[in-house]
Hints:
Blueprint: H1 13-29, H2 42-51, H3 57-70, H4 74-78, H5 82-89, H6 95-111, H7 121-124, H8 132-142, H9 152-161, H10 169-179, H11 185-198
Helix pairs in contact: 2-6, 2-8, 5-6, 9-11
Bound molecules: iron/sulfur cluster.
The site of iron/sulfur cluster (SF4) has 13 residues, from helix 9.
Amino acid sequence: MPGARNEPQSPPAAERRLARVVLNRLKKRYPVIGTALEYVDPWQLLVATVLSAQTTDENVNKVTPVLFERWPTPADLAFADPEAVEAVVYSTGFYRQKTAAIIALSAAIAARRDGEVPADLDALVELPGVGRKTASVVLAEAWGIPAIAVDTHVRRVTNRIGLTAQSDPARIERDLKALYAQPEWAGISMRFIQFGRDVCDARQPRCWECPLADRCAYPDKTPGPE
Ligand code: SF4
């Protein structure tokens, strides 16, 4: 049974085969994959990722050039007037919470001895407002360190296909890490996210045109339109 294993190093052969087929087909669909967020350093990506909650990357890319021009370093943003920051990030939604979050995390980074975003998952999740998903995105994208970000799309898609039976993101991450080689981690994670947006929708998955339909374990596949 998928996801019931305790030893992440040894998933059954059938699951490994399924994982390989899924990877190959998603690579075919998305030959090149990466974050659409625009950034020039890990701190900017971290801030942009926080701002991307509940909105599109496109929306975030409209505000971050203004934000980083006005407050170009973590120390600058740490001491920014919250109302001025709120005015800049307003259009990304939840602007008060997001402003508080990016100011707090910038202050925490500025207070570090090297003033840098840590290249380490445990240290990243210690930063205020940074969860495992955000930390994994930053590790993989900005530092090139293998990591699997598990968001709502990854959770839904991998459960439906049958690559895991877990709902807890850390356990899904563990299952996926056992199924895929390290060099594939960041890519498979980003592909699941994109696939969840494009095809395997939460409410009405487009199963009739899904390239994984013949291998997917989801029992309630959507029939094709008449
Ligand atoms: S067949 Fe349907 S449920 Fe399964 S992965 Fe494809 S879109 Fe998602």
